[in-house]
Model the fold of this input.
Amino acid sequence: MRVQGPCHLPPGFHALPWYEGVFTGMFMHASWEHILGNMLFLWIFGNNVEDAFGHVAFFFWYLVAGVVAMAAQTYVTLEFAGARSASIPNIGASGAIAGVLGAYFVLFPRARVLTLIFIFIREIPAFWFLGIWFALQAWTGGLSLEHPETGGGVAFFAHIGGFTFGVASGLFLLQARRRSPRYGLR
Done:
């Protein structure tokens, strides 16, 4: 009897359990540009969000943001592209980093972000920078549903799901701070 390796598995069969695939996929990247782009956004926005949540809580929150982002992408893929397309792995930290962007959007909307606009470098409010980024994700994600070839393999709905999770958890954190006498915001 011949033992089949992972390259000879039938469609729909996964060598890893889903929970291992989700977490390993969050730390793998398709190219140097992919990882460098993710790390740039994490470097710009991550430290402030980490300070707002606390170091340990941020670590677990970041992992949950990645799981939520992966679940959003998987749902949209299964709903609109079918099980065969869902067997293509989702890799990268962009969904979790989109969660960071969503939390930043709510927690630091007036912070200024140094931005390259055509040939000019300007500081613009984070609210506008991240709002435009999210609108682009929603626009191109919608286009990729109608014409999958336009997506270029980008998991737009992981970005949308992660960002939405980040906004919701950022709003929750703001409400908790307002209620806490520790912060004196009552």
About this structure: The longest helix spans residues 55-80. The longest strand covers residues 112-117. The mean pLDDT is 83. The beta strands are 112-117, 120-125.
